[in-house]
Specification:
18 helices, globular, 2 strands, mainly alpha
């Protein structure tokens, strides 16, 4: 029987590192990040996964390291978007861990989190931060498919985002995969190797690390430009190259996540996530247009100079989504306190757009698929209250600790809140350490 549990913070951050693929740096020239530091980070990740040591401190250190590694790969605006979007999702995870509880196995909890939380938050966060950091100012281009960063179900199986972006890059360069990676037929070393690797990635045989993928395309950019100059052909611009790099980074991460979802949860869950995501993102596009219109009006009305536009975008988008969250929270509180009905909540939320009304108008589509087991609410209430029992004199804390331990053990025997025990022990240990 699978135990009822959440993924640990360490397991979450380890997965995030795997998603972005930044640790394998065998081909990287960055002298500040050698094999010794790589092993040190891997050891820290293992300790986090085992919930060993100061969790909050190590969690923060790992996020800082991840930010450093990503920042060296893509332009600043896009890096900020990725970082803030990731922080949004981690905040949702930590809020869920603290406030929600689970009565599902770890695998089922991850599936619930994906379909109930991520599918709503991710489209909003991407839209929000793209505008907050005025990414459009970079002038980067993307594939014509609106959802190029999501997998698509084809007649012969799934088409992964990495394949979509690679084929788009070849089209943007106006050449074939072989001419792109192996433009000089006499080169039987790096160019041939890059070509063979690219074929494997297109076939979906494995997902390369980001440094490996980046090195391949950077070398191919140089080789292609060299051959094109000999034939007096127009090469890719720097903006086009940066566009390809950013799209590759995002597509590689999305491909890794999508294949993990397919492997652990199956075809139907991946399809459900993609379908719901597109529906949510389509609704959020209204908010995006509303913010865009507002910013353009502000700039025109006040004749704001171009060097101030970034701040206008940052302020306008931040204010918009803060007001949005306040309105939705007010509606949710009214619903929770039975001051309004579901129908009234839907009617009120429609004033703020399709995204605001989505959950209230699509109850069946987004309804929980698991019934709450008997006794879970009582167990959760008692368990969460135990997190405050470490306050007071040490002797009283020991008494509270053993009392709390027995309570959690009692509920865990019913497969309800065993996941609270490591958190409870960590909190008590931290408080006792501070006392001493």
């Amino acid at each position: 029987m699978n135990s009822v549990n959440f993924p640990t913070q360490g397991e979450v951050i380890q997965f995030v590192f795997d998603v972005f693929g930044v640790l394998p740096r065998k081909n990287d020239d960055d002298a500040s990040f050698d094999e010794t530091r790589k092993k040190s980070i891997q050891k820290s990740l293992q300790r986090l996964a085992a919930e060993d040591g100061s969790l909050s401190q190590r969690f923060g250190e790992m996020l800082q390291t991840l930010s450093y590694l990503i920042a060296g790969s893509i332009p600043p605006r896009e890096c900020f978007v990725i970082g803030d979007t990731l922080c949004d999702l981690l905040d949702v995870y930590q809020d869920t861990l603290r406030d929600e509880g689970t009565f599902l196995s770890k695998s089922e909890t991850v599936k619930w989190f994906l379909l109930d939380r991520v599918v709503f938050r991710l489209p909003m966060s991407i839209t929000k931060h793209l505008q907050r950091y005025n990414v459009a100012a970079n002038g980067l281009v993307t594939p014509t498919d609106t959802f190029w960063y999501l997998p698509s179900k084809g007649t012969n199986g799934w088409i992964w985002p990495l394949e979509k972006v690679m084929r788009w890059a070849y089209k943007l360069a106006g050449t074939s995969i072989q001419r792109f990676h192996w433009p000089d037929a006499d080169d039987l070393t790096d160019q041939e190797k890059n070509f063979q690797s690219a074929k494997n990635w297109l076939a979906g045989r494995h997902v390369p690390s980001w440094p490996t993928l980046l090195k391949n395309f950077n070398q191919s950019f140089d080789a292609l430009e060299n051959e094109q100059s000999k034939r007096d052909c127009h090469p890719l611009s720097d903006t086009q190259k940066n566009s390809i790099r950013v799209a590759l980074f995002m597509a590689r991460a999305s491909t890794y996540i999508s294949q993990a979802v397919l492997s652990h949860h199956g075809d139907a869950v991946l399809q459900e996530f993609c379908t719901h995501y597109q529906k949510v993102a389509d609704c959020v596009s209204d908010d995006m247009q509303r913010i865009r219109d507002h910013v353009q009006q502000l700039i025109a009305r006040h004749n704001i100079p171009a060097n101030k536009w970034d701040q206008v975008w940052l302020d306008a988008s931040t204010d918009y989504w803060k007001q949005f969250a306040d309105r939705i929270l007010e509606i949710a509180h009214g619903l929770q306190n039975q001051q309004i009905t579901i129908a009234e909540a839907a009617q009120i939320s429609r004033r703020f757009g399709r995204f605001a009304a989505l959950r209230f108008e699509n109850l069946e589509q987004f309804a929980p698929k698991h019934s709450v087991p008997k006794g879970f609410e009582d167990a959760l209430f008692e368990g969460l209250n135990l997190n405050g029992t470490y306050l007071g004199p040490l002797a009283l804390r020991w008494q509270a600790y053993f009392s709390g331990f027995e309570a959690i053990r009692r509920w865990r025997a019913k497969a309800l809140i065993g996941w609270l025990l490591p958190s409870f022990q960590a909190i008590f240990a931290k408080a006792s350490h501070h006392e001493s």
